[in-house]
Fold:
Amino acid sequence: MSSSTLAHMETNDLDAFFMPFTANRQFKKDPRLVVGAEGMYFRTPDGRQVIDASAGLWCVNAGHCHPKIVEAVQKQVAELDFGPTFQMGHPKAFELASRIGALAPGDLDTVFFANSGSEAVDTALKIAIAYHRARGDGQRYRLIGRERGYHGVGFGGTAVGGIKNNRKAWGHMLVGVDHIRHTHDLSQMAFSRGLPEWGAHLADDLERLCELHDPSTIAACIVEPVAGSTGVLPPPKGYLKRLREICDRHGILLIFDEVITGFGRTGTAFASETFGVVPDMMTLAKGMTNATVPSSAVVMRRGIYDAFMNGPEWMIDLAHGYTYSAHPLAVAAGLATMDVYQEEGLFQRAADLAPYFEDAIHSLKGLPNVIDIRNFGMMAAVEVSPREGAHPTARSYDLFLDCWQNGVYTRFAGETLAFSPPLIADRGHVDRIFETVAAALKRVA
Ligand code: PXG
Structure:
């Protein structure tokens, strides 16, 4: 390395890292860095403890640096650092698939591994189209998403996603994609606790698209059971059941993107279990390995897998996969994470804490600029009115910053602050989080 390169690095040039989903210049003027984490807390370079009110990015469900998961990964890296899963395998990959399959509802017991939520989503969409094709139903190529949905950043996920800024440059690049309307309507559901009473009929928007496009051209419909990134939008009561019925009527596969809702966030293993609605496929990531090692999965009904097993035995069944599908470190982290969830009863713990969490966040009603509060399980959001004449995230960014400076890390998106603490949180953490948010709301104009 040349001395000039070294000198360059020693200045720790922040411009070298083009940061994801970040206002780079704004961040680099006054960086927010973390150098350590344990349980409910991040540690900053100056030794400050910051409570993690967002489980990282909705992913560290069992808390940071869980000793059991850390140990499993450390052991694994010294035993089998990498092992291919193309025409090869390693036993723990099958074990994790079985564990996840056993946890999943209904006959969703077959697992395809990827590395990120985005990859899981694109995999699920590809499997949906290939499944119909394998059954001689190749005219089903359309994919239906929902406005305000977030399904990651692959071309597929971007296209079925419904966040306009994310779609702007690339949303049009997949053919045959359409969207049902979102369910968020403050005139009908502001300050709902849990599921809004109003809005089950909005599922009928899928019928409208069936009529428009001919349902026999539609391969799949993908939704988050509770939309996360777009500011926590719990589904209206009965809405998901109605979507399921419409999909059944027309032979459309229903995909639940449980990248956020999976692994305890709604108080059971999966939102599909909480809502009693079984999809045909689920996408999982984040909490699957407690984010210790990147990993994700598509869990599908056995019948979907079976449809691919009709060719000659020597033939590759699905021309799809990633070098790191079921990476040994990810699998070790996943198995340890499943143990931790079980041993510590974290899904039940989330269910038990949810009512307290709900009361705590709804106590912010009436504070300046608060126009909505919504929650389900251990996810919740506060929406503030946009600041007049300013850019749309001006107020939520200032609130986020105020919280960070006062020891609480949370996420902001659009005009909302979103909360999804690790499921190990206790009442004291919840109090601390919302006291800090209340103070910020009073301070930030
Ligand atoms: N589906 C859903 C429902 C997600 O929430 C993805 C897919 C994509 O996962 P990857 O692993 O490719 O990022 C996500 C990701 C936020 C936030 O604060 C949310 C996500 C990622 C980063 C930030 O809202 N969700």
